[in-house]
Design brief:
With 329 residues, the chain is an alpha/beta fold. It has one domain: Purple Acid Phosphatase, chain A, domain 2 (4-Layer Sandwich), CATH 3.60.21. 24% of the residues lie in helices and 20% in strands. The chain is built from eight helices and 14 strands. The strands form three sheets. It has a six-stranded mixed β-sheet with strand order 5-4-1-12-13-14. α1 packs parallel to α3. The protein starts with 12 loop residues before the first strand and ends with a strand. The N terminus is likely disordered. This is Manganese-dependent ADP-ribose/CDP-alcohol diphosphatase. Its cofactor is Mg(2+). Belongs to the ADPRibase-Mn family. Its EC number is 3.6.1.13, 3.6.1.16, 3.6.1.53.
Length: 329
């Protein structure tokens, strides 16, 4: 949807968005259900297209949001995780623009949580993000303010998960208890039901711990008091109307109730569901799920540039990502 509003005045700032690159130096393949084609090598070319577009923009993006699954899990079985990550980061590094990385399931297929914390994918080490991260070294969550009155919060959707957690850890035990209560399949990547909300209880999803939810509550309360506008990002979607139910965070409802209680929240952005999705709730908060690069054909694209204004954000989508005007609540 576009009405020309994006051209009325100069934005306060812009930022780029891209999700589910899942690069691997292997031939094209298919998704878990073998129902969708995946273009592993081509994803790097589509990232290059995005970088080229952002570099050519009259107003250069202040930062890029990379919403998780930067390389594919197949790299692990080919002992190519480090090499694949270096290849993708070389493309990102071709531009001086700061990149904020979100962690998805494929990050954990390739690396341990400890390794990720020490890697280039830990954006809390960036100067602009410094001081805004959750104090627990076990949770990858932080916030940053690119401009006065605007704040972005990066959440850890695999905080409670079987992925990236040691089997002896409390959070692994919590995760296995949650899954076993809802999913009795031998292979926990298979959903417990063919349709409906129960599908989300699979191994490739995760949830948010109470510590992280409490931290977010505090961040949003301060933002309310400062009259800030907040955009929250996570690899996993949290609104049932913005995604296929199989892609939802396990305790999406707990996070939704927090967001809907704070007037500062304007938008939630996620990846994971490669088809993308969108919903605006009754309070006016936008839930945007980005189309995945990995399942985008070579003759298309899947990235966007968001222009931020006093009363709205405008998403200019490229390829199969739609234009959207996101008015503030």
């Amino acid at each position: 949807m576009t009405t020309g509003m994006e051209n009325c005045d100069k934005p306060l700032f812009t930022f780029g968005i891209i999700a589910d690159i899942q690069y691997a130096d292997i031939d094209d393949g298919f998704n878990f259900k073998r129902s969708r084609k995946r273009y592993y090598r081509n994803s790097l070319r589509l990232l290059h297209n995005a970088q080229k577009r952002w570099s050519a923009d009259t107003v250069k993006p202040r930062f890029i949001l990379q919403l998780g699954d930067i390389i594919d899990g197949f790299n692990k079985r080919h002992d190519a995780s480090e090499r694949a990550l270096e290849t993708v980061m070389k493309e990102f590094d071709s531009s001086p623009v700061e990149v904020h990385h979100v962690w998805g399931n494929h990050e954990f297929y390739n690396f341990s949580r400890d390794t990720l914390m020490r890697s280039v994918l830990n954006s809390t080490t960036d100067s602009e993000a410094g001081g805004g991260h959750l104090s627990s070294c076990e949770i990858y969550a932080y916030h940053f303010s690119p401009a006065p009155k605007y704040r972005f919060v990066v959440l850890d959707a695999y905080d409670v998960s079987l992925l990236g957690r040691e089997e002896s850890s409390l959070k692994y035990q919590q995760a296995i208890a949650i899954l076993k209560a809802h999913n009795d399949n031998e292979d926990l990547n298979h959903p417990p039901a063919p349709v409906g909300m129960e599908q989300r209880f699979v191994k490739f999803n995760g949830g948010f711990s109470q510590d992280q939810l409490d931290w977010l509550e505090g961040v949003l309360s301060l933002a309310d008091n400062k009259l800030e506008r907040v955009t929250i990002v996570s690899h996993l979607p949290i609104h049932p109307s913005s995604t296929d139910p199989i892609c939802l965070a396990w305790n999406y409802d707990a996070l939704l109730s927090i967001l809907q209680a704070h007037k500062s929240v304007v938008c939630f952005m996620a990846g994971h569901d490669h088809d993308g999705g969108y919903h605006r709730d009754d309070s006016g908060v936008h839930y945007l799920t980005l189309e995945g690069v990995i399942e985008t054909p070579p003759d298309s694209d899947a990235f966007g540039t968001v222009s931020v204004y006093e009363d709205r954000m405008f998403l200019k989508g490229y390829g199969r990502m739609s234009d959207r005007i996101l008015m503030y609540p």
